[in-house]
Amino acid sequence: MTGASISEQLEDVESAVESGRKKIDWARQHMSIVESLREDFEADQPLAGETVAMAMHVEATTAVLTEALAAAGAEVAITGCNPLSTHDDVSAALDAHENITSYAKRGVDDEAYYDAMHSVIDHDPTITVDDGADLVFLVHEEYPELIDSIIGGCEETTTGVHRLRAMDDDGALEYPMFAVNDTPMKRLFDNVHGTGEASMVAIELTTNLSIAGKTVVVGGYGQCGKGVAKKASGMNADVIVTEIDPRQALEAHMEGFEVTTMDEAARDGDIFVTTTGNRDVITEQHFEVMQDGVLLANAGHFDVEINLEHLESMAEEVVEARDGVTGYVMPDGRQLNVLAEGRLVNLAAPKAEGHPVEVMDQSFGIQAVAAREMATNGDQYDAGVHEIPDRLDREVAEIKLDAEGIEIDELTPEQREYMDSWQHGT
Known about the structure:
about 425 residues; alpha/beta; Rossmann fold; 2 domains; 8-stranded mixed β-sheet; about 15% strand; globular; Ado_hCys_hydrolase_NAD-bd; Adenosylhomocyst_ase-like_sf
């Protein structure tokens, strides 16, 4: 193996395991979808004989998914998908499971981050579960000999799906991957309510500053940007949206938000939140005109949306303004404050817990059924990016409704015939 498991890295493993177990058990109480699937998995063993490699944000809700996959019969190896999003105690609790090995550790440098990913791949996976596509890319780049034995995988987030589609377009993706991010049960809930709510909470917890009365600039109006904009507006902030897509810009305008360019918004914002999945959303030209004391946060997967190289080169001094807040002091005395080192604020900020548990239950329910689908029907999918089959998305929704005690109508035979026919008219 390339690196040591988390249990071999921590000094007080027993205490960490106990702390992590409490977090996992609390999350499990509120994850009715994954728990329902876990019960089925234990009975049916759909992943028996499989080895699942995971690169995810290793926190309590992820742990509930990980243990559900192990309950389905899989051997699981997991590491982090961001250097600052791992909860070490949760990682230790996972590593204590007889069928799980965790290499995730918070605060590692790039070398240790990729050493852990190599260690996960050294388990010779047959299924990959990814968040950001680093794991999939590394398999293709450095372990091509494993590709024939990998049935397929699942990708969690917007940025990762973008990368996979680019690989697919170039003919470089050599095994099937489910675009978990793009299915309704993930996209309409996790991206909007999860990213929006968790990002604003993380900003408040990190700074102890109010959102109300401030001007919040949201970079990008995809599903994540919509969530941030709506939650900030609900907290009584004035919201400005910046966009590159004319349709999404028009949607933001029609939903009551001011829409302008980042060049203009940079002068007015108190809080900036980037959600695009692209690089250089906020750069030197924007830093030059920002107000003293602004807060700069990123809710995209990688730390490239706020150009920190530009900011550091412009700064006369860099200070630790507060735990999780780095202050860049400009020559004219203005201080621009970056949260969580420009990494995704809802998970990387010191007190951040990630998306609400109930929201992640839906997303990880999709991950669980997608992994089951790959294990049981993987030969039906060619190499490339695949949408989650609608029947799986509906299955997860039905489990959630049942857990909430919510009943819905069903089509009558006459209604179904009417909807399926082209012959009915005026």
